Amino acid sequence: MRPILLKGHERSITVVKFNFDGDLLFTGSKDHTPSVWRSENGERLGTFNGHKGTIWDLDVCRFSKRVVTASADMAVKLWDCETGECIKTFNHHGPVRGAAWADGSNMFASISDPFVEHNAQISVYDVPENEDPFNYSDSPRLEIDLPKIDGKRVNPTNIVWLNLNEALFVTFDNGSIRLYDPVTGEELDEFYPHEKKINRVSFNQDKTLFITSSADFTSKLYDVVDLRHLKTYKTDRPVNDAVISETKDHILLGGGQEAMSVTTTSGKVGKFETRFFHLVYEEEFGTVKGHFGPINAIAINPNGRCYASGAEDGYIRLHHFDKSYLDMKDPVPEEFIDGEEEDDDLEEKEADGSDDDSD
Fold first, then answer.
1. Mean pLDDT by 10-residue block, N- to C-terminus, for the chain (359 residues)?
2. pTM above 0.70?
3. Burial 311-324 (b: 16+ CB within 10 A, else e)
4. Are strands 239-244 and 229-234 parallel, antiparallel or unpaired?
5. What radius of gyration do the chain's Cα atoms show?
6. Helix ranges restricted to H, the chain
């Protein structure tokens, strides 16, 4: 499996994302310029120029018409995907950590860090597609303030809309996940899947499962409907991102030691590979090496034929799976229930006996 090396960013990669159809790959980094690539051959189609800070997150709408980017320059920008033109800038009170389109692509939500006297915030903006962008409001339709807990700031790390825009799903750096009502802003639920910071959360395309990636060296799979914990994938280093394959029962994990201690080790020791786990059996069955720094972001194409990983080394590696992987059948471990093994042996002997009779 030879990767296509995408060299378009000057600094560490922070986010990689495929669009819904899987033909485009969107990437963001600390160099202020999000890019879009053709996923088939790694050709760069263009860039979105205008931010003055790190791009922490981006999201593309269902039909790849508009893109929102969240930046450390305290702004979310709305872009025309085809022309790369900035439609509107939405200013925030602090560095913006995440942005996500709602179902229907007529509104988006963002999360921003605390800054000076302003608390961290969740904001919801209305941006109807059939309306003139000139009429879009600069201020959010809904602002949810996130005050300190016991004198400590708790910062949001990711935001996602659940199916039919029923709730806003927000992860935090204290290991908690909260659900908010997108109309009233009321907190609906809170639970603690991890003890340390949740770096990233990703959903399957149907939004029936989600997987968290945490600094506590684990990644956990949950059911979206009843928020039930299903599986845990354990590693020996912080997990920065994890994704669920759409076509196989596989999980892809990316991580590595922290960026500040990377220079003291070689690529082998730092463990900067993508790790493949079986979704059901929680077993690691393969790794893909190549990066020279911790993997910060990972994304798998909805068609299951390729995946992309972006790392601290500033490169995106676009891997198209070999035929052997695509055709691979997952082994089913055989565990005999008491007495079952003997029955099978008997059946085999009887079958052999009947073959002999026919001769």
1. 93 97 97 96 96 97 97 97 96 96 97 93 96 94 92 93 97 96 96 96 96 96 96 94 96 83 55 91 93 94 96 96 91 64 51 49
2. yes
3. bbbbbbbbbbbeee
4. unpaired
5. 23
6. 267-270, 323-327, 340-358
Best CA proximity match to 110, nearest among 319, 323, 196, 102: 102
C-alpha angle with apex 92: 203 to 127, nearest 5 degrees? 60
Rounded to 5 degrees, what angle do the CA atoms 144, 149, 154 make?
A: 65
- The residue type at 225: V
Q: How far apart are CA 188 and CA 305, in angstroms?
A: 37
C-alpha triplet 227, 239, 163: angle, nearest 5°: 30
Q: Which two tokens stand for residue 190?
A: 């809170």
Sign of CA dihedral 192, 227, 331, 306: negative
Phi/psi of residue 263, each to 5°? Answer: -65, -15
Number of helices (H), then strands (E), belonging to the chain: the values are 3, 28
What DSSP string runs through 197-212? -EEEEEE-TTSSEEEE
Helix (H) or strand (E) run with residue 57 in it? strand 55-60
d(CA 85, CA 96): 20
